Amino acid sequence: MTDIHSPFTLGKIRLQNRFVMAPMTRARANADGTPGILAAEYYGQRAGVGLTITEGTQPSEDGQGYLMTPGIYTDGQVAGWRAVNEAIHARGGHVFYQLMHPGRMSHPDNTPHHRQGVAPSAIAPGEQIYTLDGMKDIPIHRALTTEGVQSTVKDYAYAAKRAIESGADGVEIHGIAYLIHQFLAISANQRADQYGGSLENRARFAIEVAQAIVAEIGADRTGIRLSPGFAGFGLDHGDEGPDLFRYLVTELNKIGLAYIHIVHYGDDDILHDFRKLWGHVLILNRPGRPREDIGKDIASDLESFGAMVLANPDFIERVSTGAPLNTADHSVYFGQGPDGRASGYTDFPACLMVGRRSRVGSRRWCD
């Protein structure tokens, strides 16, 4: 029987196990979009997982939505990511960057150029976003022209190229909540050109982004993250939502991406359909998955974990030995903690394994 601790081949890379660190925004990058000073330590601590998928990384100036998030489109950002990649690779891990364009989930105050953001259509999401001046209503963004959509596709491909130049093993296209997902949703996309209207047209942007990235770096280095059950940020797929995602997965399957990463909210029927439609690697993330269920989805090839890896730099060791897990503290997920950047970032304690027992530091047993 397959074990989650067993090695796995993903494209041209050999993963040391079937655990995946899910992408998690931390908002600890520098103002210029370069990774923060502790990013290499943070990711290196957790590189015992087979595959690390980084926090959402913007592909362009227009692609920044939140404060202090990293990018991968300038020379400085490429140089900054090299130390992160080296730290992960030094522990035998591999890394894909998640390319994230927020679309309408952004604010001009949070971008380097302070311009009005872009979206499929000029429709506000009805949400607020954090800025340096506190929470603000997200304004109506400008609708991308047809040429603007195609230019944005090129931005994704360029960012993927820069990711590989920085030493990454590949990229994951972020297809949940943000720009790609907004093109899929009838509540955010009311376009009259080839990117709006029918489900085939609404899926076109996601497919073209995938095709452009594959043309730049190869299918074996390209994945995508989707969630047909996600309905936040004012997104609505309409009655044809399941058919839309079945169509999208079918078309992406033809491109031969390295993997599809599904965030699953409980619609087992569509998950079973995906297993039939998708002929490549499937990564499954179940939000709130309890510890006792770790490894039960291994038929999906790989399992991804978010908060548990965030709070446990030695997650793999704790799972394999039965040591208790640290609890993630949501109050320190984003930005600097009260005592600086390390708080809630690189300061979660690791167990020291001694014989069959484990302890934290040199003071107390972990189990």
CATH class: Alpha Beta
State the separation between the terminal residues, measured CA to CA: 28 Å
CATH topology: TIM Barrel
Mean pLDDT: 92
Largest sheet: spatial strand order: 3-4-5-10-11-12-13-14
Q: Which range does the strand content fall in? A: 15-25%
Overall outline? globular
Ranges where pLDDT stays below 50 over 5 or more residues in a row are 354-358, 360-364
How many separate domains? 1
The assigned structural class equals alpha/beta
CATH architecture: Alpha-Beta Barrel
Radius of gyration over C-alpha positions, nearest whole angstrom: 20 Å
Give the helix level as a range of percent.
Answer: 25-40%
In a nutshell, what does this entry contain?
This protein has helices at 39-45, 75-90, 146-165, 179-184, 199-202, 204-217, 241-255, 268-277, 307-311, 315-321; strands at residues 8-10, 13-15, 19-21, 51-57, 94-99, 118-119, 128-131, 134-137, 142-143, 170-174, 222-226, 259-263, 281-285, 302-305, 351-354, 357-360, 364-365.
3D architecture notes:
- The chain has helices at 39-45, 75-90, 146-165, 179-184, 199-202, 204-217, 241-255, 268-277, 307-311, 315-321; strands spanning 8-10, 13-15, 19-21, 51-57, 94-99, 118-119, 128-131, 134-137, 142-143, 170-174, 222-226, 259-263, 281-285, 302-305, 351-354, 357-360, 364-365.
- With 367 residues, it is of the alpha/beta class.
- The protein has one domain: TIM Barrel.
- A hairpin with a 2-residue loop joins strand 7 (128-131) and strand 8 (134-137).
- The radius of gyration is 20 Å and the shape is globular.
